[in-house]
Amino acid sequence: MLTRRRLGQGGLEVSSLGLGCMGMSHAYGEPDDAESIATIHRAIELGCTFFDTAEVYGPFTNEELLGRALKDRRDGVQIATKFGFVIGDGLFSGADSRPTHIREVVEASLRRLQTDRIDLLYQHRVDPAVPIEDVAGTVRDLIVEGKVLHFGLSEAGVTTIRRAHATQPVAALQSEYSIWERNLDDEILPLLTELGIGLVPFSPLGRGFLTGTAKRAEDYPAGDFRSTGDPRLQGANFDANQRIANLVREIAAPYGATPGQVALAWLLQKRDDIVPIPGTKRRSYLEENLAAEDLMLSHDDVARLDGALATLGVSGERYGEKALTMVDR
Question: What's the whole-model pTM score?
């Protein structure tokens, strides 16, 4: 069974590893609802109680899937979802964090999730057209009403985090963070420590690259996010980045562990307020991922992984140009 970790200072306690549910309905191949629901139920059996979704995943269908899977298991689990995009005709473009829109999204998410409260509500991307104080204030009001329990931000920068936290305490920041993506190290992690905010890393396995199972972008079918959305998987970048994948595999071998377990164990050992959310729709991968909590890396191996970026480098940005413009730093 997984241990528990606290996110923020407001009493939000979740399993040490969560389950990213996006790929069950969105971005990564064809959905398999039966296997996805079985995976969610197996996660609960193993002590994983923290489930991450968003209205935009599908859109909408991922929240609906989670609602069906958890409707008889709601007590004892924590659901995180997100607002903040313009969605129309099955597509999304641009940000929308107007207070009226936030309330509309929350009401719709509650219906789809078949629940009366959202444990952790994130602003999915910062909306430059809406003062963050208005966003945080709206979520604060929803907390008072009992529809939301805790407030989170995703891909937010230092100034946004400070201003939001001054209006409504932020429990967690969600951002990409892993052995090969370290954009939080210099400014964000110290700020989270200062303010007592937890970190929820998404893509902790590098969209499969750190596990050694990722393919070249060109080998994924059209419609799979990895075919166009991650330049690190494209062409010469893919080849150059094998150096980091090889290092993770080399460190894993003496432990009898998988590279993915090493990548997750490295995160868990960095801080006690980090809760990675590796995504999968398969029970076999879920069980492998959750076993990472039992892996204790040596100080030397942690140091080698800490220095991987400086010594080996990463080739390619983590998003395409358009998506990068929506990251608040």
Answer: 0.97
